[in-house]
TrEMBL record:
<comment type="similarity">
    <text>Belongs to the UPF0213 family.</text>
</comment>
<dbReference type="InterPro" id="IPR050190">
    <property type="entry name" value="UPF0213_domain"/>
</dbReference>
<dbReference type="InterPro" id="IPR035901">
    <property type="entry name" value="GIY-YIG_endonuc_sf"/>
</dbReference>
<feature type="domain" description="GIY-YIG">
    <location>
        <begin position="2"/>
        <end position="78"/>
    </location>
</feature>
<dbReference type="Pfam" id="PF01541">
    <property type="entry name" value="GIY-YIG"/>
</dbReference>
<protein>
    <submittedName>
        <fullName>Excinuclease ABC subunit C</fullName>
    </submittedName>
</protein>
<dbReference type="InterPro" id="IPR000305">
    <property type="entry name" value="GIY-YIG_endonuc"/>
</dbReference>
Length: 104
């Protein structure tokens, strides 16, 4: 059975790159060797694989990848550090303009 991997790379500039692949070894090779010179990671090497999660369904993998790409750096670092329980707290809006700060 084919598996799909959502992965996060930490770049030399301390940014994160999130991707999805059906062959993690091939994809890491492509990133590390700048096979696509226009890829985000090409000018940000060296790279470190800091997270990967495997899926059997490509739709689940793509959905999770899109979700993670929209996350804040703190939320990405929570899953990188295997602190999944922190995600809920990190999702709470703390802006002064948040609806939770208005009284009726």
């Amino acid at each position: 059975m084919k598996t799909y991997t959502v992965y996060i790379l930490k770049c030399a500039d301390n940014s994160y790159y999130t991707g999805v692949t059906n062959d993690i070894d091939r994809r890491l090779y492509e990133h590390e060797n700048a096979i696509n010179v226009n890829c985000y990671t090409a000018e940000r090497r060296p790279l470190a694989l800091v997270f990967c999660e495997h899926f059997e369904d490509i739709n689940d993998a793509i959905s999770f990848e899109k979700q993670v790409k929209g996350w804040s750096r703190k939320k990405k670092e929570a899953i990188i550090n295997d602190n999944w329980d922190k995600l809920k707290a990190l999702s709470i809006c703390k802006n002064i303009t948040s609806h939770t700060n208005f009284t009726k």
